[in-house]
TrEMBL record:
Its main location: membrane. It comes from Pontibacter locisalis. Signal peptide: none annotated. The chain crosses the membrane at residues 9-27, 33-56, 222-240, 246-265. Pfam families: Bestrophin_2. PANTHER family: UPF0187 PROTEIN YNEE, VOLTAGE-DEPENDENT ANION CHANNEL-FORMING PROTEIN YNEE. This is Bestrophin family protein. InterPro entries: YneE/VCCN1/2-like. It is found in: Cell membrane. The keyword Transport applies. Keywords: Cell membrane, Ion transport, Membrane, Transmembrane, Transmembrane helix, Transport. It is a multi-pass membrane protein. Belongs to the anion channel-forming bestrophin (TC 1.A.46) family.
Length: 313
């Protein structure tokens, strides 16, 4: 992590800590206002309680982030399985149908790539309660036009106006699968296996939407921010009578530690918001696209992401 990135998100709080510590020191030592000092034990008790609270918050937030990463790991695995199944299980009943089957396979394979990218865009659309005034250092573009190259023109037009575009693509996959079954290109057993894989994509989307649409309880975010502010505001008063000028750097450093703990949990609690710390949906989508194209025999792989200051989105 670069200090530029850290300061981008923490500079306002650090500036407050610094100005407060300087003000307390000047008033206490230069103007000799002794009653500004408070017992150190008061802050010690608050520090202990706050550390436990922030630790619990960070652990809970990380569990949400890690669940999101595991879900998209499943998407990688099932995407490879789906491509293999489409290529090996959809078989023409006659030689004359080979070209039609090949076109169906191509359509289903590339439509799946569209589904992966569409799910990425869909999950990164922000809800009103997650929009903040915080400006991100770097954000990935998040538009559905990235999917256009993988769909037929009429499919994309219909897709673009749907309330849940990724789910619409799975419906199209199911319809093509049904047509293949009717024409004898897929047996009963193979139809069931392919349908089971489609259901897994529904499950993956549903699990991702559960995290996306169920925000981390706002009490944790709100009160942790309030408690960190109170704690940082009391620190200089506890140190000033014993440490003098050293109060300034010591109180700022301790306040920064608690601020960092709070920000760690806050930044990862919603893992699909197109933030630096999110699950890297774009990188995973490009991995899936590359794998699927390679299985199909298409060497036109997507360009790898260029990292900026170690950022992978």
């Amino acid at each position: 992590m670069s200090w530029r990135g850290i300061l981008h998100y923490a500079w306002k709080s650090l500036l407050y800590y610094l100005l407060l510590a300087v003000a307390v020191y000047l008033v206490h030592d230069h103007f000799e206002v002794a009653y500004l000092s408070i017992p150190f034990n008061t802050v010690t008790a608050l520090s202990t309680a706050l550390a436990i609270f922030l630790g619990f918050k960070s652990n809970s937030a990380y569990e949400r982030w890690w669940e999101g990463r595991k879900i998209w790991g499943l998407l990688v695995n099932y995407s490879r399985a789906w491509t293999r199944q489409v290529i090996t299980m959809v078989i023409p009943s006659e030689e004359a149908e080979a070209a039609a089957v090949k076109e169906l396979q191509r359509r289903m394979v590339y439509r799946h790539i569209a589904f992966v990218h569409a799910l990425r865009v869909f999950l990164r659309l922000k809800h009103a309660y997650n929009i903040t005034a915080q400006e991100e250092i770097y954000e990935e573009t998040n538009i559905y036009t990235d999917i256009q190259a993988f769909l037929q023109k009429d499919e994309f037009e219909a897709f673009y106006h749907k309330n849940n575009p990724p789910n619409f693509l799975l419906e199209l996959q199911g319809e093509d699968l049904r047509q293949a079954f009717k024409r004898g290109w897929v047996s009963d057993y193979r139809f069931v296996k392919l349908e089971d894989t489609l259901v897994e994509f529904n499950n993956i989307q549903g699990m991702s939407e559960r995290i996306k649409n169920t925000p981390f309880p706002r009490q944790y975010s709100f009160f942790s921010r309030v408690f960190v502010f109170i704690h940082a505001s009391l620190l200089p008063f506890a140190f000033v009578s014993e440490m003098g000028m050293a109060t300034i750097p010591v109180s700022v450093m301790i306040s920064f530690v608690f601020l960092a703990l709070d920000l760690v949990g806050e930044r990862i609690e919603d893992p699909f918001e197109n933030k630096l710390e999110d699950v890297p949906l774009t990188a995973l989508s490009l991995t899936i696209e590359t794998n699927v194209k390679e299985q199909w025999g298409d060497q036109d792989f997507p360009v790898k992401q260029t990292t900026q200051e170690g950022i992978v989105l």
